Amino acid sequence: MARLAQDRSLGFASAQGFAYFDPYMARGAILDGRAIARSVRQAVKEEVDGFRAQYGRAPGLATILIGDNAASRVYIGTKERACRKVGIQSFGYRLPEATPASKALALITELNARPDVNGILIQLPLPPPLSHERLNEALDPNKDVDGLHLLNQGRLLRGEDGFRPCTPLGVMRLLAHTGLPLAGQKAVVIGRSHLVGRPLIFLLLEHHVTVTCCHSRTTDLAGEVRRADLVIPATGQPGMIRGEWIKDGATVIDVGISRLADGSLAGDVDFPAAKERAAFITPVPGGVGPMTVAMLLKNTLKAAHQQRGNVSPL
Ligand code: NDP
């Protein structure tokens, strides 16, 4: 039952529009993360309006940025704006680079106790010597909308309901949008971080995908990619997945984002060449990135409902 509810929340039940799509006939359909994220945000907005009407208060997300990493400032700004657009209250905390762990932990304790804060997000990476494991473990797991607390990671491992990390959730939502059945597909996930690769493996397993995980010590990456129906790189190595490695009709979800010397953004996949062979492919930018933010909003709504004893409507 929980599994079925999860499928619905990822959109598998609403993908009939693609029922007759033949991946061996068509090539290079773009999975438009911006458009799909927009529809998720619209659904969240409607539910947030309903929540506010019922409880007299919108769901709230606290964001914590420590230090002055330029990319992190952009990411956190995007998340805070996205909250406001759907009516989620955003509480932004900016702490200086030299913040001692005790001060960060005191803030987390305060936010854990606040009823108007339903979700808490600590922007990574943290400046050394702060340990993100230590700060994450201090979060109330019921407010851990990034899904990185040990308890939520354990729940994912066990296939139990909990908060799942936003980027892997976004990947699953993009896969749902293809309308292709996932059970029995062969996936290769390239990258094994706690933020992306590892949680994604378990989400794919929940949907009966056969998963291979590659990393920097994999000896035949090209061979692994050639055998895969679903190719999901998350390495941060621009263009390393070559177009000729992609099996005809495969689906390619490119998680990687790197800034090139000319200031442009690039994914892990050689997009123009891969597009000639893939049935579905995500662009960078405009693929997984917007989905990550949309899933954060969805997780915050879920947290607000669960803290009221409700099942999340999305
Ligand atoms: P990490 O650096 O934590 O992990 C990178 C992974 O890639 C590691 O497991 C590493 O292997 C593997 N890897 C690196 N080089 C190679 C290689 N040559 N061949 C095979 N595997 C390799 O990164 P994250 O998981 O945090 O992020 C990965 C990418 O995704 C980054 O570009 C990041 O910007 C992007 N990202 C995008 C998000 C979005 O919303 N679109 C959100 C989060 C991340 P090993 O373990 O052996 O070192």
Description:
With 314 residues, the chain is an alpha/beta fold. It has two domains: 3-31 and 164-290, NAD(P)-binding Rossmann-like Domain (Rossmann fold, 3-Layer(aba) Sandwich); 56-146, Leucine Dehydrogenase, chain A, domain 1 (Rossmann fold). It has eleven helices and eleven strands. The longest helix has 23 residues, at 33-55. It is globular. 41% of the residues are buried. NADPH dihydro-nicotinamide-adenine-dinucleotide phosphate binds at residues 167, 190-193, 195-197, 214-218, 221, 234-237, 240, 255-258, 288-289, 292. Residues 167, 190-193, 195-197, 214-218, 221, 234-237, 240, 255-258, 288-289, 292 line the site of NADPH dihydro-nicotinamide-adenine-dinucleotide phosphate.
Topology, please?
Elements: H1 2-10, E1 29-30, H2 33-55, E2 60-66, H3 70-86, E3 89-95, H4 101-113, E4 119-122, H5 132-138, H6 150-158, H7 166-178, E5 186-190, H8 197-206, E6 210-214, H9 221-226, E7 230-233, E8 251-252, E9 258-259, E10 265-266, H10 271-275, E11 280-281, H11 288-307
Parallel strand pairs: 1-11, 2-3, 2-4, 5-6, 5-7, 7-8, 8-11
Antiparallel strand pairs: 9-10
Helix pairs in contact: 2-11, 3-11, 7-8, 7-11
Looking at this protein, list some descriptive labels:
single chain, 314 residues, alpha/beta, Rossmann fold, 2 domains, 3-stranded parallel sheet, 42% helix, binds NADPH dihydro-nicotinamide-adenine-dinucleotide phosphate
